[in-house]
Amino acid sequence: MIVSAKGRYALRVMIALAARGGEDPVPLKELARQEEIPYKFLETIMTELVKADLAESARGKNGGYRLTRSPRECTAADVLRVTETSLTAAACTGEDRECPRADTCPTLPMWRALDEAVDELLTHYTLSELCKSAETDR
């Protein structure tokens, strides 16, 4: 599994919104500049995050984007599931795939265990925790 630029950018912008406290909307131009993400690409990402109900937009002079839930309730897995086609390690363990060799494949249990470990790890990290680690890295 390789997380795409879209996934990495989405996670960064959600952390940036979480760091702002979530009350006031943050303009897209400001987010793009702060996170060094191309504006048009960020526009596409934010549309997907809004559709997934992880963020909401506010129009008008003081418009922008904010989180729809507490940073303690939103995980890295929630964000990456929106932007990534799959979070699986091998194609044969994907949600929409039935492995034709499942009964005889000696590696299938390993791939499934890896998928579970990745999911557990990504579910463990909340936006709140990621904000804290970003602060200590500065």
Describe this structure in words.
It is built from six helices and two strands. Helix 1 (5-19) packs across helix 6. A hairpin with a 5-residue loop joins strand 1 (55-58) and strand 2. The protein has one domain: Orthogonal Bundle (Arc Repressor Mutant, subunit A), CATH 1.10.10.10. The chain has a two-stranded antiparallel ribbon with strand order 1-2. The chain is mainly α.
CATH T-level topology:
Arc Repressor Mutant, subunit A
Number of strands: 2
Which quaternary structure do these chains form?
A: single chain
CATH superfamily assignment? Winged helix-like DNA-binding domain superfamily/Winged helix DNA-binding domain
Strand content: 5-15%
- Report the C-alpha radius of gyration, rounded: 17 Å
CATH architecture title: Orthogonal Bundle
CATH uppermost class = Mainly Alpha
Helix content: 40-55%
Q: Helix- and strand-based class?
A: mainly alpha
Give the H and E element order.
HHHEEHHH
Q: What is the residue-mean pLDDT, rounded to a whole number?
A: 90
Number of helices: 6
First CA to last CA: what distance? 28 Å
Q: Sum up the overall morphology in one term.
A: elongated
Sheet with the most strands: spatial strand order: 1-2
